[in-house]
Each structure stands twice: as C-alpha cells, then as structure tokens.
Hints:
Layout: H1 9-24, E1 41-42, H2 43-56, H3 58-69, E2 81-82, H4 96-100, H5 170-180, H6 184-206, E3 217-218, H7 221-224, H8 233-237, H9 243-248, H10 253-256, H11 265-280, H12 288-291, E4 296-297, H13 299-319, H14 324-340, E5 342-343, E6 348-349, E7 352-353, H15 378-388, E8 421-422, H16 423-435, H17 439-456, E9 461-462, E10 469-470, H18 476-486
Antiparallel strand pairs: 1-2, 3-4, 4-7, 5-6, 8-9, 9-10
Helix pairs in contact: 1-18, 2-3, 2-5, 2-18, 3-6, 5-6, 5-13, 6-13, 13-14, 16-17, 17-18
The chain binds (2R)-3-hydroxy-2-(alpha-D-mannopyranosyloxy)propanoic acid.
InterPro entries: 6-hairpin_glycosidase_sf, 6hp_glycosidase-like_sf, Glycoside_hydrolase_63, MGH1-like_GH
Protein name: Mannosylglycerate hydrolase MGH1-like glycoside hydrolase domain-containing protein
Family: Belongs to the glycosyl hydrolase 63 family.
Amino acid sequence: VDVPDRLGESDAEMWRGAAAILAANWTGSHTVPSRTLYPHQWSWDAGFISVGLAHVAPERAWRDLRSLFEAQWPDGRVPHIVFDPGVTERDYFPGPSFWTGNAPNGGPPSPNGADTASGNGGAATGPGGATANGNGNGAGTASGNGGGAASGNGAGPVRLSSGIVQPPVHAVGAWEVYRRRPDEAATEELRWLYPRLVAQQEYLATARDVGGAGLAAIVHPWESGLDNSPAWDEALAAVPAAVEVLRRYARRDNQVVSSNHRPTDDDYARYLSIALSYRDAGYRDADLADRHPFLVECPGFNALRGAAELALARIAEVVGADPAPHRERAGAITRCLAERLFDPTTGMFHALDVRTGRRNQARCVNGLLPLVLPELPAGQVDSLVDVLDSARFGVTARMPVPSYDRCAADFDPYRYWRGPVWFNINWLLRAGLRTHGRDELADRLRSALLDLVRDSGFYEYFHPGSGAGIGSPAFSWTAALTLDLLA
Length: 487
Ligand code: 2M8
C-alpha cells in the first residue's frame, strides 16, 4: 500500500492496518463487512467501504458497487444483503432460504448444510431462475423466487438477495470514489451507476412513501441499519413475536459474539415476523398501510436520501444529465423532515410511526443525522449541534458520539445500537458538522474517532465509556472510514 507521505508513524501504521483489513475482507467481487459475523455483501456497508477503498484501491470500490447494483431489483430496490452462493446457510442467519421462503416447509435449512444458495435450497441458480413478476416490481413469483431478483436491466448475473433495503449511501460513496480519481474509467463507472442510483431513489420516493408526506417509510428495523435502536421499541412492541419460527432456526450471531452485545431473542422473534409478513406478500409495497405490521419514517434514512440526491446532482453533471431535479428533491426531502420529524422540545429529530401517527420520544443518534443536509433551517442546525455537544451525546476529549442518549435510563453501553459508538454514524456526523461550518467540533470528533481506533483496533462498535472494542474485530467500514479520516 502507498501510505501518504505526510502521515506520522502512528497514523501510517493505522493506514496500513486499515488497508490490510479491507484486503482481507475482499472476496474477489465484493467486500464482506466481517469475515466472522457477516459473510455476504451488505448494502450500506458497501457504500461506506467504497469511501475508504477510494484511497487505496478505487478499482475495487467500483467493483464492489457494481456487485451490489447487479443485484438491484427491477423495481429499483437495492437489497440489504446480496448473498454469496459460496457461503453456507449456517454461516449467517437469516440466509437466502429464509428470504426466498424456499427452505422445506418454510422451516430451517437442512442440518447437513446442503442448503447453500446454489445448492438444493430451492433458490435461484442462474438467469431465468429468478424472474420478476408481471408487474415488474421484482417481487415473489409463484415459484418462490421472491428473494432472487434479476438485475435491473435483465442482463448480467442473477444474485440471490434479501427483499428489504438499507439507507441509500451509495451515491455519496460513488461520488467520493470519482472525485479522488476522476479519470475516464471512473466516468464510465458513473455512467453505469447513475440510472441505477436514480432508480433506487425513485423506488424509495414512490413505493415507500406510505405516509404520503414525502418521506420514505422503512418496513423493517433492519432497513434503518440501526437494528435494535430504541427508536423502534414502541412500534416493535405492537408486532407479534414469531417465537416458534425463531426456535426452529438457530441464531448464528450469538454464537460469534456475546449475546449481551446483540439484539435480544425477543427482538429477533419480532424481526422474523415482520420479514415473514413482507415476504409472504411477495415483497409488494402496494397497500402496505393496510397490512404491514411495521412502518416507520426514520430521520436518518430520510436524511441520507437527501444527501444521495445532492451527490446525484454532482454525478449528473459528470454524465451529462440534468442536476436540477436532484437538488430540488434534496430540498423537498429536507423540508419534509424539518416539518414532520423535528421536535422542538428535545431539539432533535425522532422516528414517526406511520401506523399510529406518533413520534417516538427516545433520543437516538439517527435523530442527529439530518445535520448532513445543507438546507436544514439554521435554528434546527443550532439545536442539533447543541444536543450533539451536550451531556447526552457529547463528544468528549476521547469519545465520539454514542448511538443513544447517555442520560436515558435504558442506555446500554454494550448492546449494539442502544449505546455503543459506531464509526459510520460518526463519520456522517462529522461530514454534517463540516457542511454547516462547525469545524472545531468536527475536528474534535475526528480526533476522538482516530484515537479510538488507535487504542482499540478496527472494531464493529465501541464501549462509549471505556472505548473497548465490541462485536466483530477487523470490521470493514471502521477500516474504510479510518482511511478517509486520515487522508
Ligand atoms: C447489522 O445488521 C445485520 C442485519 O442486516 C445483522 O445484525 O445481522 C447492522 O449493524 C447493519 O447496520 C449492518 O449493515 C450489518 C452488516 O454490517 O450488520
């Protein structure tokens, strides 16, 4: 690896360490988030990973994004997991047989491990095996290939995937890769990606505007990326727990990391029941409001939709398309967020349950993410910065922003998205602070992030008190975004 000359010895060492992790997590066509815990390709991870690869291996960044978008559904949705056919069902749960519904009796994969995606699990094995249905939304067919959608234009390899999405951070990633090395090859990549990124945004803006106010609803906590955030507690409590289904499967995550650091079994039983409800309706989005048990407008997810439109405006200029509609859409999303999800009493944004019309009161870090939007009203920016610098979320000398309010009674420094510090979110917050000229705080955040990795390593998440690494070590987006902070 080429290490930038101006880095001191300790930073240069971090640079090499980060690059080595990305190399080790590269499969030849995509980067896995973690070899131990997440052996497939994840959607928003790929976006963050591309930001880091831009500095050390841009050709891998482009390939990674291509791999993901080759699995885009005909309706524009980009699946949250693209399954690697070389990985067995036992290595990740819920795997392809769950998402396609092709396991025997809808139950767990056979114990002999024969149910790999390319094996007899009943999943698609090649072009034509997984076809879009008549209305072109890529949802389940009669033969049960719901999770395996054909690529956007009908060409290219068919990949098995889940049927839910994640925050659209890919346009931001693609723009970062391009601007670091804006050559002809990069322009070609942008030409390929642009219509696909637009289709992804279109899907979210139309099929997912369940509330009708211009914001996209997530249909599953996994879609937020902040899986067990307290932001979903209320909405989740109303969902029946599929205890029996969970019992028939074995959770894999708990065997890899301590169960105290992961979502609970009760969470998982509800996650499964929501996913089954969506799957059994063929992953259709029509009439979601009448039948789907979980529909929430997430401030983080929607802020990232807005950021994606701004990145698309820049990409449009490169590929000869009109940037103006993208800027307009970013503005519209910003206004909807500001009107609908901001709570003046807490001074931050909160998730809105479309089914009840209620805004969740928990102070969660996704409620700070609208900071990435340049047109956010100045009063709301000031207010978010105050919260970000308060005892609840404060960036202390050593510690970046936690995922949940430190002062909340149920703040849990170990449990995943209910307290620990996450790198990707902090990277976004730092970008947001810079967007609004809060450079001093942005710099403090950057130093705290780099210190954390220097002391603890490239973990998936970190204890918000001690800084100890939690979850998977050698985590791709932590490595990738460290490179970006160092560059
Ligand atoms: C976590 O989510 C997956 C489900 O998608 C899991 O827990 O198995 C989340 O942290 C999510 O944001 C992330 O994209 C994924 C892979 O890193 O892991």
